[in-house]
Amino acid sequence: MILQRSSQLAQAMNLSALDLYTIGIGPSSSHTVGPMRAARRFVALLQEAGVQARTARVEAHLYGSLALTGKGHGTDKAVLLGLEGELPESVDVDCVDARVAAIRADRRLRIDGGQEIAFEEKQDLVFHRTKPLPAHPNGMRFIAFDADGAELLTHTCYSIGGGFVVDENAVVQEDTTPDPPFALHSGAALLCLANESGLSVSEMALRNENTRRPEAKTRAALLRVWEAMQRCVQRGCVSSGVLPGGLRVQRRAPALFHELSSRPEAALNDPLCVLDWVSLWAMAVNEENAAGGRVVTAPTNGAAGILPAVLHYLVRVQRAANEDRIVRFLLTAAAIGLIYKRNASISGAEVGCQGEVGVACSMAAGALCEALGGSVPQVENAAEIAMEHNLGLTCDPIGGLVQVPCIERNAMGAVKAIHAARLALRGDGTHRVSLDKVIATMRQTGADMSTKYKETSRGGLAVNVTEC
Ligand code: SF4
Fold it and tell me: Of 81, 104, 170, 458, whose CB neighbour count within 10 A is largest?
């Protein structure tokens, strides 16, 4: 029922490709980006309701997966900064820890950056670990009180994955955005519309985006996404040390980067050296994400390394990319990601890691296949292969941190995406399992999966590996 509501919502929202790529903050799109947006939205609602000036205290309640893994995923910090008016896309990531430390030390926060109120974190930020809200595992409720303790405003919402937040009452609201010319709602629709129009996936996706804004703006926005991905890789390659959170996970990307770039001749003897580079690009992003750095949600933060790694492979190894190809790679990937969002989920709390790393792998495989000259049936095949071999992938992060297995899993996902694209390119696009069948299987597998494997850190590696 939860999955059904989430995908119905995606259907009603008529999403754009750009919705899948948020330049935000780590470590989690559902547990950091979404909650920060939700808290910021709540302070905007206080203003709209004309009660902000009378607000003397605010309570934030986190439910289900947000409560279980929220501490490790930075949900507490995200809520505090959101209440202070910050947004994931613009918050200064270098000042986050100092800002949060100041709120905690002073026991005061400034609503929307202005009016100061007392904030006793123990009573005002409540983690309801055993009590999820009904519509989704990532529930939040914000309540404002006046100086006499009377309730001024209550707001309930859900972080449904990929940084998307929906209000409790918005579930049934229809989007009024004009219908796009190509209803790319399923793998079958993708094949049928391509057959009718003779267009590639990226061209159909671009024409859809053109109904929302001028093409030049879409292209510029996607190139900004690519720039942010590159900056993230660059930072990850030079930022050494131990990741925050208490697991004492050492960053590996800088040492790997140093080794690969100081011995380029090694690639002459070992053609698979290219896989080390792909792993490096993915891990650099996910180490930045785990450190709370600036990351592109693609389609989630936990899986943020796969698309940049595969796009780096296209640009740096295949040397087959110009700006148009990069834009088209991101459009094709988004078209595939939106099919998952519409028909299943991209939330680890709903369907496990198959919805995060699995979906990112599928998006990257299809996009790479098109970029390397694949036909639409081959693109659909590549996306299908990539998900078929991620089915059942659980979410069991150790210590509730987006570090183990997440960082390495992105490296594996990126390599698998390249492999899936290559397998599809070696065929003619005909295959036994369709993309739609694999998405339906992924959705059903997620529904059958025990809650302990869905971003709760109550099963799998999270309980079998001792924290120290
Ligand atoms: S295991 Fe996968 S879904 Fe879970 S937090 Fe890590 S990347 Fe996200």
Answer: 81
Of 138, 361, 455, which is best to mutate to test ligand 1, by the most ligand atoms within 8 angstroms of its C-beta? Answer: 455
Pick the atom of ligand 1 nearest to 300's CA.
Answer: 8
Model confidence at 299: pLDDT above 90 = yes
CA distance 284 to 461: 22
- Burial call 235-257: b when 16+ CB within 10 Å, e when fewer: bbbebeeebbbebebebbbbebb
Number of domains observed in the structure of the chain: 2
pLDDT at 174: 53
Do 271 and 194 share a structural domain? yes
Mutate which of 33, 249, 295, 395 for ligand 1? The one with the most ligand atoms within 8 Å of its CB, which is: 395
Q: Are 232 and 151 in the same domain?
A: no
What is the separation of C-alpha 52 from the centre of its chain, rounded to a whole number of angstroms? 32
Is residue 82 a part of any domain in this protein? Answer: yes
pTM: 0.93
User: Which residues, judged by CB distance below 6 Å to any ligand atom, belong to the binding site of ligand 1?
Assistant: 302-303, 348, 353, 356-357, 395, 397, 402, 405-406, 409, 455
What sign does the dihedral 434-438-443-445 (CA atoms) show? Answer: positive
In ligand 1, the atom with minimum distance to the C-alpha of 303 is 7
**Residue located nearest, by CA, to atom 8 of ligand 1:** 302
pLDDT band at residue 5 using 50, 70 and 90 as cut-offs: low
Angle, CA of 143, 1 and 67, to the nearest 5°: 40
Protein residue with its CA nearest to atom 6 in ligand 1: 406
Burial class, 151, CB count within 10 angstroms (exposed 0-12 / middle 13-18 / buried 19+): exposed
Task: Classify residue 299: in a domain, yes or no.
Answer: yes
Q: Which domain holds residue 61?
A: 2-172
Encode pLDDT of 57-111 as tens digits.
999 999 999 999 998 899 999 999 999 999 999 999 999 999 999 999 999 999 9
Q: 293 in a domain, yes or no?
A: yes
Q: Say yes or no to pLDDT of 12 above 80.
A: no
- The confidence band for 14, taking pLDDT boundaries of 50, 70 and 90, is confident
Mean pLDDT of 430-443: 97
Please check whether residue 44 lies inside any domain of the structure.
yes
Among 400, 363, 349, 384, CA closest to 164: 349
**Is 389 found in the same domain as 278?**
yes
Best of 33, 406, 449, 453 for a ligand 1 pocket test (most atoms within 8 Å of beta carbon): 406
CA–CA separation, 125 vs 369, rounded Å?
A: 46
Beta bridge partners of 24: 295
Concatenating the DSSP letter of every residue in 282-298 gives: HHHHHHHHHTT-EEEES
Ligand 1, atom 7, residue with closest C-alpha: 302
